[in-house]
Amino acid sequence: xxxAERVERTLRRYAMLTGGExxxxxxxxxxxxxxxxxxxxxxxxxWRLSLHVLHVDHGLRPDSAAxxxxxxxxxxxxxxxxxxxxxxxGPGSLEAAARAVRHAALDAAADRVGAVRIALGHTxxxxxxxxxxxxxxxxxxxGLAGIPPxxxxxxxxxxxxxxxxxxALLEGASLPWVEDPSNADPKFFxxxxxxxxxxxxxxxxxxxxxxxxxAVARAARQTVDTLEQVGARExxxxxxxxxxxxxxxxxxLADLPVAVAAEVLRAAAAGLGSRAPLxxxxxxxxxxxxxxxxxxxxxRLGGVVVEVSGHxxxxxxxxxxxxxxxxxxxxxxxxxxxxGRAIEARVVTATTYAxxxxxxxxxxxxxxxxxxxxxxxxxxxxxxxxFGGGERRLKSLLIDAKIPxxxxxxVPVVEADGDIIWVAGLRRAAAAPVxxxxxxxxxxxxxxxx
Length: 450
Description:
By secondary structure, this protein is α+β, with helices and mostly antiparallel strands. About 40% of the residues lie in helices and about 20% in strands.
């Protein structure tokens, strides 16, 4: 089977292309990416493909410009347009930082040329190395699934082909390629697996160790794909979606198999922008979310926050910020756009006033309160002076009212000269009660913003 035939089989097996697409091919200049371009070019007429090439120059070697020149000449020889993107690799892990800027450049270039797919040159050898690395690090089934053949618009048509097949194709066609010297540097974990461990396993145990590990990845990928489908279905069934994230019932999650429940939370986070791989720390955090003693603090999963309060779990892009403190002039109105509410203050004569009976309206003796009130979020240690004497912890009041932990900082607290007089919509304090001697009544009303 030729490399082009193997690529075509992979395209069909994973539904990477249907025909007629514009495809951006990432070509580093190495044998794998150059062979990918040649194979796709061989298929381009039958599949009606429009190919474009992007070479990303990371600028990490003094001679990196020579790689760009080779790819540009290759494109001219093969009749494929080539764009070179020069990028800056930021601090942190060199491999991770380079991958991030490379993928950003690929996405931008694909948008410019209207490519629906981005083809990358990962082979079965890369897959085997990835699986072995994750086995050594300790991994679950998701880690064993290795490099996905398709992720978003990225496709990997060589994922079932060998590196040696790519080299043979280029040698047979007398096409040049470059060898990145960093691929031989033993300081990189992948290089030690590639040049030391896999050859040792191949010679001592199984010459087809690469194929065996790639097969493990395929089987694990099928399991992961099935788990993701089940998780997506359960997420759609269980999630209560709002403007600031989504919430789920912990009891409903607990009724699911643990792996499915964790996948529901992972899928919820992914839907809100999390792209973090689910490493061991992530699994531990999700187990805490679902465990008998749930998390008391928000848990971050790839930039997305997961919070637990009572029987509810919230997944959102960020914690809800507390209300800012604002002054309320009497009479007057203060708007609280963060929660879509406002508090209105009016002063009326006591003789014709009927005391309110709903929780969102409350009355005070106006002459016993200052002309300016403070509307603020709760503070640690807040206490409420209760009717009949004694004090009530505001935290306990909010818990008893079943206010989720993530919303407690957004419950308006009205304060007069340092004392809480009203937890808006929940409880009035004992301050300034309306009595027979009251001449003027101050009414506070929690209303919806128009």
